[in-house]
Automatic annotation (TrEMBL):
InterPro entries: PQ-loop_rpt, SemiSWEET. GO terms for cellular component: membrane. Its main location: membrane. This is MtN3 and saliva related transmembrane protein. It is found in: Membrane. Keywords: Membrane, Transmembrane, Transmembrane helix. The lineage of its organism: Bacteria, Pseudomonadati, Pseudomonadota, Betaproteobacteria, Neisseriales. NCBIfam families: SemiSWEET_2.
Length: 98
């Protein structure tokens, strides 16, 4: 019974930590702005989560794979919006050919 309990605890922990990214994704999308978000932090976060996902796949751990797979998607969404929205905010004079 303990392995089942451990797996359920892992799934619950993964769900909660993964869901913690949803408010940030929603806020950035709604405001179409990510100026206050650290690019370095999200680059490191995506890299670390990708490694956790790889680890989960190697050890065949469903909680690790599910949590980190979803977290990677959400953190990459924020990272992509950061890059796109920051590029749109760049002054015209600073753009190549502008």
């Amino acid at each position: 019974m303990m392995p089942d309990l451990a797996e359920w605890l892992g799934l619950l922990a993964g769900c909660l930590t993964t869901l913690s990214f949803l408010p940030q994704v929603w806020l950035v999308w709604r405001k179409k702005s990510a100026g206050d978000i650290s690019l370095g932090m999200y680059l490191l976060m995506c890299s670390g989560v990708a490694l956790w996902l790889s680890y989960g796949l190697l050890i065949h751990s469903r909680p690790v794979v599910l949590a980190n797979g979803l977290t990677l998607l959400l953190s990459m969404a924020v990272l992509l919006m950061k890059l796109v929205f920051d590029a749109r905010r760049q002054p015209q004079a600073d753009r190549p050919g502008g």
